[in-house]
Amino acid sequence: MKKVLAVLLCLVMVFAMTACGGDDGGSADGEVYKISYAGTVADTTSMMIRMNEAATKMNELSGGRLQMTVYPNNQLGDSVSNFQQMQENGSVQMGELSAAALSSFTNLYTPYSLPFLFSSKEQAFEYFDNSEQAKAVADQFYKDTGVRIIGWYYNDARTITNSKHAIKTPADMVGLKIRAMQSDVYIKTFEALGASPISMSFAEVFTGLQQKNIDGQDNGTALTVSQKFHEVQKYYTDLHHVIDMAPILVSEEFYQSLPDDLKTILTDCIAEAVAAERADYDVNGEKEEEEIAKYCEITHLTDAEREAFKDACSSVYDWYKTAYTDIDLDAITAEIATINK
């Protein structure tokens, strides 16, 4: 009888542990999923601050099953190598980079770096968040590359700084050596304005400016300040030639390995990070420009002055249609034109 009671007691304990999920906190599989997030900017930027908050919340909501470590400022390597790791589901599972940097892997996002494509950040947000066109491109992107886009950070309206003279008209760009991202669209844009674009990785820009190997650079105010570019420059212009967006990326293989509840937690936390990061720009932009003004002469363009730069870049659109015959640029510009933001 004692043996029978002992067996029954063991069975009761096993059933109780199964009903309560045992030691896995109620998880369907009990597995811990670890994410290495490759950040491209400093830990003081809104992008990294909000992503760290997302990592904390993921951990809490998942009961420790979803654990993300954020590595800022290219600590895990450059954008190309990190993207390749995501493709292979290797040492990097997630990260962000400028949409223009995706041109190394696909043509799909090349049109969104065209100069003066979007008239405002709100128009860009609406397009990338809600347009069926953008969703179709994102679907094709992960099928082609094995990397999924799960959100869009705002990477600022690109401004321009230089060490030579104030920039107020397209003629002021002539002859300036401007660092350009490794994107033929950016290179063609600066060539159309008469500048001399020099391709250079983001990590080399400060030294290039400091040593006068280049005269200037184009980034938004947040990155200009966080990377201290303004401290080795003399002139700043709010050109806003590109409303830059930064896709938040995840390895498709890794994403599909997650249970459905963790997929939901991941995407919900990223959506909150995106909303907070975008809102930060409205708060921080004026402060960042004040910081830049300590070192640089500030030039604010009028709408008419900015239009002159847009007109000077019209040839870039003609070149693009010839160079990228697989992209329906007219359809993209028509869709964007319907968004009144």
In short:
It contains 13 helices and eleven strands. It has helices at residues 2-20, 46-61, 79-87, 121-130, 132-145, 184-192, 205-210, 221-226, 252-257, 260-293, 303-312, 314-323, 329-337; strands spanning 33-38, 66-71, 94-96, 147-157, 160-162, 177-180, 196-199, 216-217, 235-237, 243-251, 297-299. The longest helix has 34 residues, at 260-293.
Give me the number of helical elements: 13
Total beta-strand segments: 11
Largest sheet: 5 strands, mixed
- The global form is globular
- What integer value in Å does the Rg equal? 24 Å
**Class per helix and strand makeup:** alpha/beta
The run of helices and strands is HEHEHEHHEEEHEHEHEEHHEHHH
Query: What share of the residues does DSSP label as strand, in percent?
Result: 15-25%
Global mean pLDDT:
91
| Spans of at least 5 consecutive residues with low confidence | 1-27
Cα-to-Cα separation, first versus last residue:
79 Å
Strand order of the largest sheet: 2-1-3-10-4
Helix content: 40-55%
Describe the structure.
The protein is α/β, with parallel strands linked by helices. The protein is built from 13 helices and 11 strands. The chain has helices at residues 2-20, 46-61, 79-87, 121-130, 132-145, 184-192, 205-210, 221-226, 252-257, 260-293, 303-312, 314-323, 329-337; strands at residues 33-38, 66-71, 94-96, 147-157, 160-162, 177-180, 196-199, 216-217, 235-237, 243-251, 297-299. Helix 2 links the parallel strand 1 and strand 2. It is globular and about 65 Å long. The chain starts with a helix and ends with a helix.
